[in-house]
Write a structure and sequence with these properties.
alpha+beta; Arc Repressor Mutant, subunit A; Alpha-Beta Plaits; two-stranded antiparallel ribbon; 6 strands
């Protein structure tokens, strides 16, 4: 990746809907250069353009961070199982006091309680779960909220 690739990605992080023509004009290169660069970045797996939603507008007003300790040797299996839950936006293997960290969004505290009791605690290999309600999201998807 060179400087132009970095500038192209930065421009798309600002607005993923920008056309190749707009990107070319902004970066002072040809539209063909932009098209070629984007195709390469996508085919290499460096760039994927995704929608970042405002969870509040979808009625998902309870963001929660899950810090999870697993049984020895179970972290990866637990993370793979958690990744299948639609309500979890992020699942990561981590170092430190926890083995897995996940972030989820829920319609209410009751929905969160149901997820915890009926789904999360039923995942084999989980030893401990600490939850933290997110009071306010300051930055999400590369943008300040």
């Amino acid at each position: 990746m060179d400087e132009l690739d970095h500038h192209l990605i930065a421009a798309l992080r600002e607005d993923g809907w920008k056309s190749n023509v707009e990107l070319a004009r902004q970066l002072k290169v040809s539209e063909g250069t932009v098209r070629t660069r984007l195709a390469r970045l996508r085919s290499e797996g460096t760039l994927r353009i995704l929608a970042v939603t405002d969870h509040r507008k979808l009625g998902l007003v309870v963001p929660v961070l899950f810090n999870i300790q697993t049984e020895v040797g179970q972290a990866e299996a637990v993370a793979e199982r958690l990744a299948k839950f639609e309500s979890l936006e992020l699942v990561e293997l981590v170092t430190g006091g926890y083995d897995v960290v996940a972030v989820g969004f829920y319609r209410s505290n009751d929905a969160l309680a149901e997820f915890l009791s009926k789904r999360l605690w039923k995942v084999p290999g989980i030893r401990k779960i600490d939850t933290a309600h997110v009071l306010r999201i300051v930055k999400l998807g590369g943008r300040l909220s």
